[in-house]
Design goal:
This protein is of the alpha+beta class and 301 residues long. It has five helices and 14 strands. The protein has helices spanning 8-19, 25-40, 56-82, 190-198, 283-294, and strands at 111-116, 127-132, 137-138, 145-148, 159-166, 170-171, 203-205, 209-213, 216-225, 239-243, 246-251, 258-266, 269-277, 297-299. Strands 3, 4, 5, 7, 8, 9, 12 and 13 form an eight-stranded antiparallel β-sheet that branches. The chain has a three-stranded antiparallel β-sheet with strand order 1-2-14, covered by helices on one side. The radius of gyration is 25 Å and the shape is globular.
Length: 301
């Protein structure tokens, strides 16, 4: 039975072992270069929201590239080993075929991007679309988040956006000890949610600002997490708030994270547009993120 747990390293080692045989020396240089390119291709991580994002795609991409290397080795080897040398006459070698360069996944196309879709069970009762106006933003349709650059939303310079749509939010008094600081009653309005977030421990809040997104009124608040938060001491994750049935709906990625929250009331549904970045995030990425937040549109049943 085929072992589907074979890693990229196992495949690479098998190819290199095959190349060590004497009759394969002619293709070792080409195949080795191809494998080196495969090894250095960056793999995008899936660490921001495990509930909606799975690392399966990343593994498939890695194994697919390794498999492509195997096919390239076999084809090139069969051509070089099975063909006579110096077919053009003494001192004339066949013209080598250019090697194709492995492609890296491109960012989202500029234009509308479905960030969240309505679900039949009502868990996501609104469709949210944003406009991507710059390259190097990554995400899947209806997954609820988008990320910038190879660092994703992780420190020290990542950036990303995630959205929530619910009628009740449980904002923990202390994100590090969230299980024992859960409020008895949830926040059910924009003002209640903003007030609870502004008073959360281990974070410094800006003064709330009035905003309008797609014609719906709301408030914006920026929360700065302390730089010396010990994530290892938290139980588990540094968790900002929970939803009914999901105690760890939103948690942070690293110390010093800045949460820029645009919170609007969409016909009684509280939508949280959560943009996050760090002090070292490039300013152009922050500006692009804010433009994405402001571009959100909502569609109700």
């Amino acid at each position: 039975m085929t072992d589907f747990k074979t890693s990229d390293g196992d495949v690479n080692r098998a190819i290199r072992s095959w190349l060590r045989e004497d009759r394969h020396e002619d293709v070792s240089r080409i195949a080795g270069a191809l494998l080196d390119q495969v090894d250095t291709i960056p793999q995008r991580r899936a660490t921001w929201w495990p509930a909606r994002r799975t690392p399966t795609m990343n593994k498939i991409v890695g194994l697919g590239l390794a498999a492509a290397a195997v096919v390239a080795v076999v084809l090139i080897g069969s051509q070089l080993i099975g063909s006579p040398t110096n077919v053009g006459g003494p001192g004339i070698e066949p013209t080598p075929t250019p090697e194709p360069s492995p492609s890296v996944a491109a960012g989202l196309p500029e234009g509308p991007h479905l960030l969240l879709d309505q679900t039949e069970d009502g868990s996501d009762p609104v469709a949210i679309t944003v406009t991507i106006a710059a390259p190097e933003w990554f995400g899947e349709p209806a997954e609820g988040f988008i990320l910038s650059g190879e660092s994703d939303a992780d420190p020290p310079d990542g950036a990303g956006m995630i959205v929530f749509a619910a009628r009740e939010y449980y904002v923990y008094g202390d994100p590090c000890t969230w299980s024992t600081t859960r409020p008895d009653t949830p926040a059910t309005t924009v003002d209640e949610l903003v007030d609870a977030l502004a008073n959360q421990a281990l974070r410094e809040a800006s003064a709330p600002e009035d905003i309008t997104v797609d014609g719906y009124a709301g408030k914006k608040i920026i929360l700065h997490m302390a730089d010396d938060v010990d994530f290892d001491a938290c139980e588990p994750e540094f968790t900002l708030f929970g939803l009914p049935g999901d105690d760890r709906a939103r948690y942070s990625q690293g110390a010093g994270q800045i949460e820029e929250l645009w919170i609007v009331d969409v016909d009684g549904l509280i939508v949280v547009l959560d943009g996050n970045y760090y002090a070292d995030t490039p300013q152009n990425a922050v500006d692009e993120l804010r433009a994405i937040l402001a571009s959100a549109t909502f569609e109700l049943p």
